[in-house]
Amino acid sequence: MAMEWTEETIARLRDLWQQGLSTAEIGRQLSVTKNAVVGKAHRLGLKPRPSPIRRGAKADKSADKATPAPAAQDAAARTPATPAPAADVTVTEVSVAVVATPAPEPTAAAPAAPAAVAAPVAPVVEENTVSAPAPAAAVAAPPPSTPAPAAAPTVADSAADTVSPKPAAAPAPKAAPAAAAEEAAARPAAKAPRKATPTRAERAAAARAAVTPPRRRSSQSCCWPLGDPGTPGFHFCGATPLPGKPYCAEHAQLAYVKLRDRRDNVA
DNA sequence: CCCTGATTCGC
DNA sequence: GCGAATCAGG
Q1: What is the C-alpha to C-alpha distance for residues A10 and A16, in angstroms, rounded to an integer?
Q2: Region (Disordered): which ranges (predicted)?
């Protein structure tokens, strides 16, 4: 049960987190719950980032527990100097975040770091579907050759599909949208039987679906990520991709693997 | 209501 | 260490 937080996963978590994506978003992309994300983030030690609430005066359901701590004083003292997280994320730091927030969900991340989020979507932006919240700036300054991370050729055939992360130390190229949708779709159904309200799930699924389907035109350069997103050295392969694929021949080999294998591999 | 993140606590 | 349950602010 203990989810295995591999370096891979953690790296992605860190990256996405740093990008200012909401915990829920990250969770969705990693195929875990937001709680898992938050919990892990905490344990990982990374966790600055504006929180809607400050838990100084936590209501104790038990009234005493093990913390007699003077909440009042504590509350006063605690003032995270919250460094604008999203703010310092520049467009330069293009990353694999992609798929993130479709149109209907601006969420907190959008207003905060729209540029960062939108930028990577550049290729997709052509669709103009996802770019809704995107600030003109981001669109105006489209990366010369930074394609979207894996707008993987959804499913399609039967043999080859999805991604196999692990180019060197690089973060996985956005885990297959198909897979995500797949799981996401199944999860809520089984997981939230008590709540017959598909609203949230429905919306999310729809959003995701909306993003995936729009013909993701693979750009003219391989979008296999190299290096660590967020770091200066990060870049995409850039080689000429195979027709209809986002990756060049070499990386396509790495990227596309049997669906079965992927199951073990991803998420 | 919905969203969000934060903390607690059983596992 | 993990994450569901719970809490709490917008």
Answers
A1: 10
A2: 45-86, 136-222
